[in-house]
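thread from #wetlab-drylab

HS: before we spend reagent money on co-crystallization trials with 2-acetamido-2-deoxy-beta-D-glucopyranose, can we at least see a predicted complex? here's what I'd submit
DV: go for it
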Amino acid sequence: MDYRVLSSLSKSLTPFSLLLLLYIFPAAAATTRAFNLSTITYEEGYSPLFSDFNIERSPDDTSFRLLLNRFSGSGVISTEYYNYGFFSASIKLPAIYTAGIVVAFYTSNVDTFEKNHDELDIEFLGNVNGQPWRFQTNLYGNGSVSRGREERYRMWFDPSKDFHHYSILWTPKNIIFYIDETPIREVNRNPAMGGDFPSKPMSLYATIWDASSWATNGGKAKVDYKHEPFAAEFKDLVLEGCIVDPIEQISSTNCTDRIAKLLAQNYSIMTPERRKSMKWFRERYMYYSYCYDNIRYPVPPPECVIVQSERDLFKDSGRLRQKMKFGGSHSHRKHRPGRSSRRRNRAAAGASSKSGQAAAM
Ligand SMILES: *[C@@H]1O[C@H](CO)[C@@H](O)[C@H](O)[C@H]1NC(C)=O
Ligand SMILES: *[C@@H]1O[C@H](CO)[C@@H](O)[C@H](O)[C@H]1NC(C)=O
Ligand SMILES: *[C@@H]1O[C@H](CO)[C@@H](O)[C@H](O)[C@H]1NC(C)=O
Ligand SMILES: *[C@@H]1O[C@H](CO)[C@@H](O)[C@H](O)[C@H]1NC(C)=O
């Protein structure tokens, strides 16, 4: 996976400010369910990453929309870096024609550690006309870009219809990706992973962009700007963790207490009930796993836990034995289960962005 220059995404920088006036935002309500999350405003936690003119903030500043139009995608970044944390937002994805579109919600430090960055990804991959969104999760540690750890999935609902919470928990012990309160993937830190387990402070990013070259049918289905603008909506913004300066050699911030607090939160506890929901999700909605891709990894990476009931569903290519039906299958299925004002110069961050590994997946 390489990081290509954003300018290829931005064909022009013509402001599209009229659009900003045309949208009326629904009032965002802070939700507190089992996770007991405290939400923040955009101003409290976020800064523009690129194409400010395509970022629309709600009047009360509790939600924002990222637009993709023929001129550019757009993106935001957390103003701070976090040394471990919990990153969450309710997201509603564009509907109808989403081929070639990627919406990403991820943590990274590529702007500071260009050669040995860390990253935790949730990437929504558009689909051909009428077909539901798919998504993938992935991680990199200390520049392990040649060792992708992708898993791909469908969802049990239509993510363009309603808001759903998407969360990344990152602790020194493990990583858990959540949709709403269902854990969908857990990576337990295995000492054999070494630097491949993300361990340097990261920022949270949210972006929408044109990935026509790889995202859908290997690049055959491209973004159709007849349907522009494409808008991804974000609310219930949560950034929890130990705020640090990533380039201090010896951190003046002692994160011990903050990390202990993080580990004590409801979302950090993997209960038997949650493990059951995770199994439920993975057996029904996962359609690719690097852990089962024995062609790519004859010996699965050390953190892989081979679950036999899952393994049986996959071929040696890491893909499902039986072709998964995409069309409409999610519609009838019910789900069971103050910051520092210091603004770092994000120019460097704006110059690099995610681009996909299309590879053979
Ligand atoms: C999380 O909070 C919910 C609601 O308060 C509670 O029912 C549940 O037992 C808690 N889970 C854990 C692991 O603490
Ligand atoms: C929920 O969070 C608030 C503020 O962070 C805290 O005061 C309260 O004790 C928490 N409630 C539970 C049930 O953990
Ligand atoms: C991370 O990468 C840097 C530079 O390549 C290297 O010096 C360092 O030892 C690595 N750290 C870990 C934990 O592997
Ligand atoms: C950080 O704080 C904890 C407890 O608050 C303390 O035990 C520990 O020694 C501190 N570590 C450093 C490096 O200051």
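DV: The mean pLDDT is 83.
HS: ok that's useful, forwarding to the group
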